[in-house]
Design brief:
heterodimer; A: 157 residues; alpha+beta; five-stranded antiparallel beta sheet; 66% helix; B: 213 residues; 2 helices; Peripheral myelin protein 22 (chain A); PMP22/EMP/MP20/Claudin (chain A); transmembrane (chain A); PMP-22/EMP/MP20-like (chain A); ubl conjugation (chain A)
């Protein structure tokens, strides 16, 4: 029983950490000229890395907003999980926790989809998607599975 | 021991700035302006050395779509030299304060042909190695949305909806609780009403006189 609890918490925290890393470090696109991400564009030349804030397009701001929202909802669901763990009746389900976690995973999914569709408009030249982009795509199924487990789980002794 | 420490500190002070002697120039990244308005392009720098008297600022302009840049402003030897032949003649003014490391310029009466990249290069002898910084100027008829406004709006709307749903949920619970409370009061009233009715239904049996034998 304790093992199950620890496993669930570990899954949730892993998804949350991936979301944080993906949003903050944010090496979403890297190419030969430099890397570009949610918050700024960096190019590297002889004097070192040179960073400028990202463009003021509407879609990149939408991706920023959606990633921040997914972090907020995932944190809220973790807090709610601990609340419900001590206040839920026996046999009850962690509906609220699961709802928030599933919403967080949906936000991550929509953010990465928007970024994938719009990225040719933002970055030119040959580039490839960086590790933050991959981390965001990995965080989506982790958060989804975690949310579904919460919805299915019943509280026991 | 003290002399050793003094020597070491002098050596360190001599060695450490060697690595970080690049001058760092700051301009904005993008500036938006309305047609016909004035725009101030700021340029400042960071340098480990004191501001020298031979500090120089120079601005160059590269129109959108062109590969050539022309020089439009130069400050040297304490005298600013503004453009008097190029596209900014009579429109450029120096509003900076070189003593405070500010080399900002003011461009008056913007036009669509002023769209382009302005590059500021500052030198603070002997600190001269640095990368010039560029600011893009975009001229609009109406002011566009600033960076971060849409982000904040989306986050605010979603969190506001969440708070609203929570408030509505608790309000409904509170209202239902009140209705339950009033239901129990009316039941109590009904019981009271039924009580006397029951008493009235139960009439005492009539007294009959049994004659004595």
């Amino acid at each position: 029983m304790l093992l199950l609890l620890l496993g669930i918490i570990f899954l949730h925290v892993a998804a949350l950490v991936l979301l944080f890393v993906s949003t903050i470090v944010s090496v979403w696109v890297s190419g030969d000229a430099g890397s570009s991400d949610l918050w700024r564009n960096c190019t590297t030349d002889s004097l070192g890395p040179d960073c400028n804030p990202a463009s003021t397009g509407e879609w990149i701001q939408a991706v920023q907003a959606v990633m921040i929202l997914s972090i907020i909802f995932s944190c809220l669901s973790l807090v709610l999980f601990f609340c419900q763990l001590f206040t839920l009746q026996k046999g009850g389900r962690f509906f609220l926790t699961g709802t928030f976690q599933i919403l967080a995973s949906l936000f991550v999914m929509s953010g990465t989809i928007i970024y994938t569709v719009m990225s040719p408009e933002w970055v030119n030249g040959n580039y490839s998607f960086g590790y933050s982009y991959i981390l965001a795509w990995v965080a989506f199924p982790l958060a989804l599975v975690s949310g579904l487990i919460y919805v299915i789980l019943r509280k026991r002794e | 021991m003290l002399t050793f420490l003094a020597l070491a500190s002098v050596l360190l002070l001599g060695i450490v700035p060697e690595r970080s002697q690049a001058i760092v120039i700051y301009t904005g990244w993008e500036r938006h302006g309305l047609v016909g308005s004035d725009i101030r392009l700021s340029c400042s720098f960071f340098s480990w050395r004191w501001t020298s008297e031979d500090v120089t600022f120079s601005w160059t302009y590269r129109p959108d779509g062109s590969r050539d840049s022309i020089s439009i402003f130069h400050y040297t030897g304490g005298v600013p030299y503004v453009d008097n032949k190029g596209p900014f003649r009579d429109r450029l003014e120096f509003v900076g304060n070189p003593g405070r490391r500010d080399g900002s310029i003011l461009i008056k009466n913007l036009d669509f042909s002023d769209n382009g990249t302005f590059t500021c290069d500052a030198k603070n002898p002997p600190d001269i190695v640095g990368r010039p910084s560029s600011v893009r100027v975009l001229v609009f008829e109406t002011v566009p949305i600033q960076a971060g406004v849409i982000t904040g709006a989306i986050i605010g709307v979603v969190l506001g909806l969440l708070v609203l749903i929570v408030v509505i949920y608790y309000l409904m619970r509170f209202l239902v609780a009140r209705r339950v409370f009033s239901l129990s009061v009316s039941k109590h009233g009904k019981k009271k009403k039924e009580g006397p009715q029951q008493r009235q239904l139960w009439t005492p049996p009539p007294l009959t006189c049994y004659p004595l034998p």
